[in-house]
Amino acid sequence: MSSAALAYSLILYCRPGFENECAAEASALAGRRGISGFAKTTPQSGYVHYVLHDAVNWLDLAEALPFNDWVFPRQRVIGVGRIDDLPERDRVTPIADAVAELGLRVGRVWGETADTNDAKELSGFIRRFSPHLEKALTRQGSLKPRHDDWPTLHLFFRSASSVDIGLTLPHDASPWPMGIARLRMPRAAPSRSTLKLAEAFMALMSREEQQSTLRAGLKAVDLGAAPGGWTLQFAERGLHVTAVDNGPIADSVLDTGMVEHVRADGFAWRPQRRVEWMVCDMVEQPSRVAQLVADWVATGRCQRSIFNLKLPMKKRWEEIERCRKLIDQRMRLHDDKYVLRMKHLYHDREEITAYLARV
């Protein structure tokens, strides 16, 4: 496992159209950690390049800017090298030579590109190319596939002749190539929003958290539940769900036998007893949703919550920071220790998804 490679940049994969928000976040987080650099963006490119003024040990940079602290990047890669003139007839050799020169020892290799229509044209090339590179890296001792705790080597192709070489640690990165969760639509799901909550469980919670809190027999509340996509995620795991919405809940969700439909306003309704979960996907001002969720968790109505914040068209990063402060102020009124994680998930669009829990 390599620890000596120097980091020159951050490569931040994001949803196309959110490059400015991703860049603003990079500047804010780096500035708070005393890291000097600047963001390079191209509209609708699906990534941001944050260039460091001074090279640093890549592990130190990863520790200073851990993946869980980021909102807009689907993946945060530590850039340690770049090749801009890959020959068409042999791209393997220069990349393998660069990896050897950097002294890297990795446990897996991901060939990646941006999530744009233009960049997707590279996906076929990457699929064909990757096995040949993996063989070369294995032969020279740079790739040890059974070392699951070793870094992941990211090869971010901007074109067939230009590639960024980057690293992440398995426990400090998205578990999916390109940060994209490929999930199957449940048969009984009434809407695609169900995939958003399924991704949130995996992206915002550890395995231990999932195992201990998504257990059969626990109770959950879904505010603004109609037509029931989020409710279904709990019901199929054996949790008893109170689905709160004046609108209808799909029969396929009610047929699980785990759901009670309450016709009420999600902002006004309150449970008679404490529940493990409250989730909320209501279309409302983000600050109002943030205050509602913080009130539920701070007062003990629920132990934890996953919720969406529908972002404005402008000043999205500023709105997220505002919601963070609102939640922090509410939780501190009760002297509560808490965890708050936020991500712009693959299945999100003009919103982000957040996880808040008392600890």
Notes on the protein architecture:
There is one protein chain. By secondary structure, the chain is α/β, with parallel strands linked by helices. The chain folds into two domains: 174 residues, VC0802-like, CATH 3.30.2130.30; 166 residues, Rossmann fold. It contains eleven helices and 14 strands. The strands form two sheets. Strands 2-3-1-4-7-6-5 form a seven-stranded mixed beta sheet. Helix 3 crosses helix 5, helix 6 crosses helix 8 and helix 10 packs parallel to helix 11. The model has no long low-confidence stretch (mean pLDDT 95).
> What is the level 1 CATH name of the largest domain?
Alpha Beta
Strand order of the largest sheet: 2-3-1-4-7-6-5
Number of individual domains: 2
Q: Return the structural class.
A: alpha/beta
Helix content: 25-40%
Q: Report the total helices.
A: 11
List low-confidence stretches.
none
N-to-C SSE string, H for helix and E for strand:
EHEEHEHEHHEEHHEHEHEEHEHEE
Q: Describe the sheet with the most strands.
A: 7 strands, mixed
Mean pLDDT: 95
In the CATH classification, which architecture of the largest domain applies? 2-Layer Sandwich
- What is the third-level CATH name, the topology of the largest domain? VC0802-like
Work out the strand percent.
Answer: 25-35%
Number of separate strands: 14
What gap, in angstroms, lies between the N and C termini? Answer: 34 Å
Q: What global shape is seen?
A: elongated
Gyration radius over CA: 22 Å
